[in-house]
Structures are given as structure tokens and as C-alpha cells.
Amino acid sequence: MVCKFFFIIVRMLTENSVYFTSQIQIPRIMLKNILNEMSPLSDKDCFYIVERYKTEFTYPLHSHREFELNFIEGGAGVRRIVGDSSSAIGDYELVLICGEHLAHVWEQGDCVSKQIREVTIQFSPDTVPPSLLSKNQFSSIRKMFERAQNGLVFPLRDIMRVYALIDTLAAQPSGFRQMLSIWEILYELSLSEQALTLSSNAFAQIEPSANSRRIARVEEYVNGHLGENIRLSVVAQIAGMTPNAFSRFFRKHAGRSLSDYIIDLRLGAAARLLVDSTRNVAEIGYECGFNNLSNFNRIFKRKKGMTPKAFREYYRKKKIIC
To answer: Which domains does the chain have, with CATH numbers?
Structure first.
């Protein structure tokens, strides 16, 4: 109880929002306490905007139900962690997060700037009901929200297209005009062809989406056999195609090869287990389909920038357990 009130007081003093701890049941994974943010967004408002000027990032790893668009200027070297993705950012950063339980944080990293600007926009998923998102005019925004369940980072070119809108957003006197500007920002970003997803599906606990019945059958099979040797010929047969035809088909729909897709799923599942279980690294690697420890370590480090052991230690020390 003392620990809980300590974080509530810290959050109220720094950014007018509070934290509380809750428990989420994860199938086959041990129960963990994770830090959830209670947004200052009220039930009577469509959005919450805050603009901050800071010299450092001290906010802990957290998650929240609200959708969030976070803009950072002058933060080169800051480290962004979204799910199992970790990367240093440049001078400009713009990330959309629409995953309710997707843990994320921006921490100081190697940033030495003393003039960091951050603009955060939060809005409830209820603000954009499915009945509205299902309309043709909102199709690009709907697809962007779906991708942003894993976290979505936008390139500099897209940031510059909406910079003028973000730059003046907090200073606008009318809440209605701010809302219109937010919709314009979201629409412009939804047209991006270079935005990149951050966390893996397995780590973010996102149900795989099907682009077609064939893809749906393939995803179901792969997710159910991650710990086994998955052969292209078997997967192609499930899709009712020849191996060569299926390879071309899958790359067109998934944007990557089947082998890359399987590796990403296995790494996401492994990262989830590293964070939420106490099993040893070798056991986790074997369970997720890596045939030996050295292979697991090598692929994990190449994709995540650190070894599985370092990832577990790094991620856990950023969590605050009460």
C-alpha cells in the first residue's frame, strides 16, 4: 500500500496523472504485476493534450487503455521501448500506440540535450466507435489503429507533413478546433507508406489478423506449431498452393518471407516468456522453436540488439513491482 501511494504522489507531482498496479492473467505465463497509467482524460472529454519542455526523461515503463500519439523534438539519443522493441530515437520522434496492455517508455539513454519538447495526445478508444471506423472515409485510419496495437513509428517525412499542426495544437484556444486538428493529423498519418510497427504480435498479445482465408489458415497453423520444425511444403499444402506459388503469395500479403515471419513470431513469444516467466533462457529458446542455445542467442541479438539474458534483465529493471 505504501508503494502504491508513493507512485500516485510522484505521478501527481510530475505530470498530473496517477499509477496503480493490477494483475493480468496471461495464459501459460506466470501472473505479473504491471504498472498501469490512469490517464487524466475525463469521460466528458474527447482528448487530452499536454505539451512539456524537459531536460530528461524519468517516467517509468507503463501501459494504459487510451490511444496515444507522442511527439518528441530535440531528443536525439533517447531510448524508446515499446513492447519488445528497443531503439534510440533521432531529433524528431512520432509514435502512435493503440494497444491497451502494450508497455512503453521513453528513457534518457544517450540523450544530452537540455531542450527536449514533448507533445502527448491521448484519446479514448470509445471516441472512435466501430460504427464510424467501418465507413469508407475512415478506412485508412482504421487500418492505422489496427497496426498501432503493436506501436507505430513514423518516419521524418511524415512527421514534417503534420509538424505545423502538432506545433500549434496545445496553444489553440478552442477544444473543438483542437479536435479537428487531431483528426487531420491522424488522417495524414494514416496515409503513410513507411510507418513501421514496433512490438511483435506475440509480445503485444495481439490476435493475428487474416488478409484472406488462406492467410488465416496459415497463421493458425504457424501459431499452433511454433515449437516445431515448420516446413514450407506443409504450410503451402494447408494454403492449397505449390511451395513456389505460396512463397510469392505470402510475401505479397505479409510483406516478408514465411521464414522471417516465423522467426519474428518465435522471437516475440520468447521475449514474452523472458519477461513474464522465470524459466531459463535455453528452455525458452527450445520451447519457441530454436534448436540450440547459440542459434537462439545469435538471432535474438541480431533482431533485438541484445542477448536474451540482457533483454530479460534490461526489461525487468524498468518495471516497478509493488
So the answer is: 44-199 (2.60.120.10), 207-317 (1.10.10.60)
